[in-house]
Amino acid sequence: MLQFTVTHRDGRARRGKLVLPHGTVDTPQFMPVGTAGSVKAIAPDDLAAIGAQIVLGNTYHLLLRPGPELVHEMGGLHRFMSWDRCLLTDSGGFQIYSLAEHRKIDEEGAAFRSHLDGSAQLLTPERATGIQLQLGSDVLMCFDECLPSEADRAHHEEAVARTTRWAARCKAEWERSGDDSGALFGIVQGGLHRDLRERHAQQIAAFDFPGTALGGFSVGEHPAAMWEGVEHAAPLLPADKPRYLMGVGTPEDLLCCSLSG
Fold this sequence. Notes:
Shape: globular
Strand content: 15-25%
Number of domains: 1
Order of helices and strands: EEEHEHHHEHEEEHEHEHEHEH
Strand order of the largest sheet: 4-5-9-10-11-12
């Protein structure tokens, strides 16, 4: 089970300790990306040696290859990738966004064709959550709809509403499983529209997830606009819970966004 404690504050900036089934994560923390079960060019023992405490895996890529069933049979993603520290898995929402020309989104989920073999796939909130449970993630992410920054307001409003409905389905699947070893985080969308961010933060907070993420940043906007958006959005999230800024990771981003909380 997840435990989180804020140990220090300086303005909006926070230091904290996030206790997960496979260890403790000091926050703020950069997560190396192990999309398909490995961090490119860095062995697990080298990752541990440089102080990495948590690694990110991706539902979309692991679904297509080698498949969550195989990973589960081999003892879960930790054992599969020889990593005994914490793991967070993305739900695949961003990858679906990146496949804009090859997918169709409706209320059920996202239908797309594999970039590997062209096979038809359907990723729903229930399936995305179920896959992450099979992988044995310490932190699971809700399935969301991510839009490019230049999308018009009407599309952002639609994506916010759908992400809220999908969050309810993800939480229901997570609770139905009876597996509370991993913590499910909600995701707040809304692009650079402040009122949409405020509205969506309230909607996601109502689910009382163990933690919350900010999605829909670093998707085409100028870095300064992203930093300003995060500065506004971060304080909207619960003050006593962990926060995850998705898809952001340059040194400048880390400094600016950590200062926002």
